């Protein structure tokens, strides 16, 4: 048999295997991407809804992909190594989602701080002879966002015939937290058994105020540990950047060899584990 025929058959088999491997890879990646997109959209949609933002959820995915491409190309072009650019691009892919979570966290913190004044306002309004709905209207009109937005939504639901229990649970779904859960539970129980709502609101406001005071003291006591954690985590990065500036030939194998990439991956994993351990140590629940 002609030897060239064996070569052609081997090349055809290799080409067919490559096509099959590529097709399977594309199919698996497509299924994985669809699953990730569903989870991403579901979580982001809930966060955007709770923040009263009308941005289409799909735009966040497009923004993440755009961030990945821009950072990958920029870092790859500047460093001359597109593998390093890909690593930075993967980090940039998560930046829009992280920014959204940060904005939601800051809004929740502001809401919890305003909740004390809102409870005192409700207590004073009820003592003055107003109804609970009128007390909620005063919070909507007199206080600032985000608590004004939440009570505006609650008041609109109550006017449309939604029960107070369902409206409060809906607010708790948008603004989850121990403080709001305590308010919802106490309000519903007091309404059902005929408790003294003004006193209940005053006691809850004092409880939340004391909890915030204790949390502030804990943050002050653990600030030094958190600062040390940041310095320890950033120290290897600063040392690497300094060595790269002083002696580029010494650091070049870290970015141009497989062993160097493996060392960088190990350093990243160990940094992440250390940061999580330190965060667990300095985080104290009240």
What would you say this structure looks like, in words?
- The protein is mainly α and 286 residues long.
- It has four domains: 1-50; 54-93; 104-214, Receptor-associated Protein, CATH 1.20.81; 218-282.
- It has eleven helices and no strands.
- It has helices at 3-50, 57-79, 82-93, 95-127, 132-142, 147-159, 164-174, 178-193, 197-246, 248-256, 258-282.
- Helix 2 runs antiparallel to helix 3 (82-93), helix 4 packs across helix 5 and helix 4 runs antiparallel to helix 9.
- The chain is elongated.
Share of helix, binned = over 70%
Helix segment tally: 11
Spans of at least 5 consecutive residues whose pLDDT stays below 50 are 27-33
* Element string (H = helix, E = strand): HHHHHHHHHHH
Structural class from helices and strands? mainly alpha
Let me know the number of strands. 0
Shape: elongated
The averaged pLDDT comes out at 76
The biggest sheet, with number of strands, parallel, antiparallel or mixed sense and barrel status, is: none
Features:
mainly alpha; 11 helices; 88% helix; 286 residues; 4 domains; Receptor-associated Protein; single chain
């Amino acid at each position: 048999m002609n030897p060239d025929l064996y070569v052609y058959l081997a090349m055809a088999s290799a080409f067919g295997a490559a096509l099959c491997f590529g097709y399977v890879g594309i199919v698996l990646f497509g299924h994985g991407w669809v699953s990730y997109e569903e989870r991403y959209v579901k979580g982001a949609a809930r966060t955007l809804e709770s923040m009263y933002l009308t941005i289409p959820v799909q735009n966040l995915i497009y923004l993440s992909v755009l961030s990945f491409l821009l950072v990958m190309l920029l870092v790859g072009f500047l460093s001359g190594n597109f593998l390093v650019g890909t690593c930075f691009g993967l980090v940039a892919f998560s930046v829009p989602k992280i920014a959204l979570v940060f904005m939601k966290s800051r809004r929740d913190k502001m809401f919890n701080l305003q909740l004390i004044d809102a409870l005192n306002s409700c207590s004073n309004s009820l003592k003055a002879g107003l109804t609970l709905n009128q007390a909620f209207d005063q919070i909507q009109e007199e206080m600032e966002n985000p608590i004004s937005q939440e009570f505006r939504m609650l008041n609109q639901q109550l006017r449309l015939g939604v029960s107070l229990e369902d409206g409060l649970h809906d607010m708790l779904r948008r603004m989850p937290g121990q403080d709001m859960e305590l308010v919802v539970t106490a309000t519903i129980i007091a309404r059902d058994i005929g408790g003294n709502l003004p006193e209940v609101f005053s006691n809850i406001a004092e409880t939340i105020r004391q909890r915030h005071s204790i949390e502030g003291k804990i943050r002050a006591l653990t600030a030094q540990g958190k600062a040390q954690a940041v310095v320890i985590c950033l120290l290897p990065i600063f040392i690497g950047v300094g060595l790269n500036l002083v002696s580029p030939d010494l650091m070049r194998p870290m970015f141009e060899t497989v062993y160097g990439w493996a060392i960088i991956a190990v350093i990243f994993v160990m940094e992440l584990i250390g940061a999580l351990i330190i965060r667990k140590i300095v985080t104290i629940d009240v």
